[in-house]
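TASK: fixed-backbone design
INPUT:
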């Protein structure tokens, strides 16, 4: 297993542990409110293919397209909820050099602080096989780095519909409750 794959599994486990460590009814309650008109630095979604298929065949166009589709879905939902998406151009070079902003030892919070965002959001889609994928989305408060929203789900099947359903679940159940 590659170092990046090991780190991705660690992030997935940490998000699951965060959810599991909450008291029994806490997972069902509404998350604390976000700042009205708060700014969000959405650093995008990282796609990590740890499947045998990916090791043999490399990058698939449909999965690249699905990753972009989910990024658009997340951006649209944040805007619908009245949050302002930060302009990432001042940190574009640094973001480009960062292999996985969801697992970079706090670099995501530091980048978001540079552009004076209230929150930073990162995500990861990990392909275990063509049947099993895992999605994570994490929102941290800037500059404390405290997690204010997080959810991880596993989806079955590698289709547009399954990816969208997984992200809708995350957004509805951990971020906005509607």
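OUTPUT:
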């Amino acid at each position: 297993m590659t170092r990046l794959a090991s780190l991705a599994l660690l992030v997935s486990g940490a998000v699951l542990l965060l959810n599991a460590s909450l008291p029994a009814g806490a997972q069902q309650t509404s998350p604390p409110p976000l700042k009205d008109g708060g700014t969000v630095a959405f650093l995008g979604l990282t796609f990590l293919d740890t499947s045998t298929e990916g090791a043999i065949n490399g990058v698939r166009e449909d999965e690249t397209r699905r990753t972009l589709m989910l990024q658009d879905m997340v951006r649209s939902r944040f805007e619908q909820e009245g949050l302002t998406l930060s302009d990432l151009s001042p940190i574009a070079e640094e973001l480009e050099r960062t292999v996985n902003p969801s697992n970079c030892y706090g670099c995501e919070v530091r980048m978001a602080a540079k552009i004076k965002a209230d929150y930073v959001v990162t995500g990861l889609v990990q392909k275990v096989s063509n049947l099993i994928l895992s999605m994570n989305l994490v929102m941290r408060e800037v500059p404390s780095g405290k997690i204010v929203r997080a959810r991880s789900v596993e989806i079955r099947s590698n289709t547009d519909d399954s990816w969208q359903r997984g992200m809708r679940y995350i957004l509805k159940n951990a971020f906005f409750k509607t």
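COMMENT: Helices lie at 3-20, 52-57, 61-80, 92-97, 107-114, 160-176.
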